[in-house]
Amino acid sequence: MLNIASALRAIKDFFHHQSPIKGDPFIHMMVGEERWNYFLSRLFANLLAMREIHATIRCRGHPNVTGRHSTTLEITREGHLSCQGDCIIGIDADAGASGLPPAFVKVLAHDDAVLHTRLRCREHCITIISRGSTAMTLDHPTDLVWRKSSFVCGRTVGIHSDKAARDLPRELIDYLQDGEDLIVEMTVHLTRPGN
Description:
195 residues; alpha/beta; Jelly Rolls; 2 domains; four-stranded antiparallel sheet; four-stranded mixed sheet; 26% strand
């Protein structure tokens, strides 16, 4: 992935007739406008891949938060929680899946998308790494669900997640049972350029 400094170096190299894309044997066979168009397409594809799109959701805990589900984690806009909701760690969220920013949804709906979710509550900051999918619709009005499996529905925001509710620290669950605020910070990016 190119950063700004390497992108500027690539432009300089291009004008000095060196390969702007290191390791690309075809660039030397191109001339004139063809070379320039190829260079720009690769450069912009890499710059696009650098984009990270962020979304933040605020919610709160509830006395019935148990954090015992072994394969999923959920937050909801609903204002109540029954004892059966063992994957739900936050209620009264300010958005469900359908409330996520369109740019965030567009990037997440790729098989090459990687989602980093940070759960912040008091001194705790837990990171969950998940994948996106072209099958994601993110159209559920109230819920967001992270899954260890590959199952996708309108509530699914992450698949192949490395954590579920049961994997969270018990002290964090205790705070959430006391109704503490939970900030859910999500960052998505593509692992391959040009998507």
